[in-house]
Write a structure and sequence with these properties.
mainly alpha; two-stranded antiparallel sheet; 355 residues; globular; 69% helix; two-stranded parallel sheet
């Protein structure tokens, strides 16, 4: 087996799983005060992600850990070159986690409002930064030789402001908008009552702007990195988002959530597919570009990792699937406000529309 290729695919799959699952978590976090007009609504909204949000973060740990073990040069160059953005992600995740636990420690409205603001910021920062970072991987960055001075040991030589070019910022904005839409569709599937109605209405309104952002970013990505097969994935991602808009308007929340998840997954596949076989492109000296060969660990390390993954990965996936199944019921708010709902052929009491 070509283990560097296998582990590149594994890293891409782990990042894709993280973006799909944590994506709706971030979206819900950014919507906590937008859709939650009263405290009972906010409890329903946060209760929708309560059993799963910390489990979804395991995908990030697995993705970063796999990068460290399988491609240490890639890990070192990426996380040193993006030190401040990654630090912002960590601070955002810590802030969000603390806020989700501490907002219920007091009944004071101002106390909860402050923690809700922390949840919003802690959801926005990782969403924007991961879009920024992944876009920078695709466009490439200036690099200089590392301490070893050899191929495969290049390090990023870019200032903080160098990371914010137009394409990278578009990636960050897209990730935020797409996650908000993904979260709104998730809430329309997972809740009932006023939160569900507002989430559906918001998803319908957001569909076209997010679709245009996705098409623009994917078009720019295909222009930067020519790859025949990723064109079809990009088209499928855009088509999935269009189907999500139609499904959520018709009250088919299960199909809509499947479609937005497919759109997020398609975006990730296009990004990593456009990179392959490169990992981090040097815009200063092509010899310093990291690829799956010069950045990979020794074959023995990759072999041991493969056996560990074969044993433990199915257990992790099985456990998380079981938790989603256990907590699959809708959460119902105290009030029903039909005026908040879009004009669609379904009622607040309609069953879950699973695909």
């Amino acid at each position: 087996m070509d283990l560097p290729v296998v582990w590149f695919v594994a890293v891409a799959v782990l990042w894709t799983g993280y973006l799909v699952l944590e994506g709706f978590d971030f979206g819900v976090g950014m919507l906590v005060r937008v859709l939650g007009r009263r405290e009972d609504d906010r409890k329903v909204l946060l209760g929708a992600i309560g059993p799963v949000w910390d489990g979804n973060e395991v995908w990030l740990i697995a993705a970063v850990g796999s990068m460290f073990a399988a491609f240490p040069a890639w890990y070192a160059a990426m996380f040193s070159g993006f030190y401040l953005p990654v630090l912002a992600v960590l601070l955002g995740l810590i802030l969000r986690g603390v806020a989700l636990e501490y907002r219920e420690k007091a009944e004071d409205a101002r106390w909860r409002a402050r923690w809700d603001a922390c949840i919003t910021v802690g959801s926005f920062l990782p969403a924007f930064v991961w879009g920024l970072v992944l876009a920078n991987l695709v466009r490439g960055l200036p690099m200089v030789p590392g301490t070893l001075g050899s191929t495969g040991s290049g390090i990023v030589d870019a200032g903080f402001t160098d990371l914010f070019d137009g394409y990278a910022v578009l990636g960050g904005v897209l990730m935020v908008a797409l996650f908000v839409l993904h979260g709104a569709v998730f809430l329309s599937l997972k809740t009932d009552g006023p939160v569900r109605h507002r989430a559906r209405a918001l998803a319908v309104r957001m569909s076209l702007p997010v679709l245009l952002l996705l098409a623009g970013f994917l078009g720019a990505t295909l222009f930067l990195r020519e790859s025949t097969w990723t064109v079809w994935v990009a088209l499928a991602s855009v088509a999935s988002l269009a189907l999500a808009a139609a499904a959520v308007y018709r009250g088919r929340e299960g199909w809509a959530f499947t479609a937005t998840a497919t759109a997020v997954a398609g975006l990730s596949v296009v990004i990593f597919g456009s990179l392959f076989p490169q990992l981090l492109v040097s815009t200063t000296d092509p010899a310093l570009t990291l690829d799956i060969r010069n950045a990979a660990s020794a074959p023995y390390t990759l072999g041991v990792m493969s056996w560990v993954a074969v044993v433990f990965l199915p257990l992790v996936i099985g456990y998380q699937s079981w938790s989603y199944w256990i907590f699959r019921q809708r959460l119902v708010g105290e009030r029903i406000e039909p005026s908040d709902a879009p004009d669609a052929p379904s009622s607040p009491d309609s069953p879950v529309n699973l695909p």
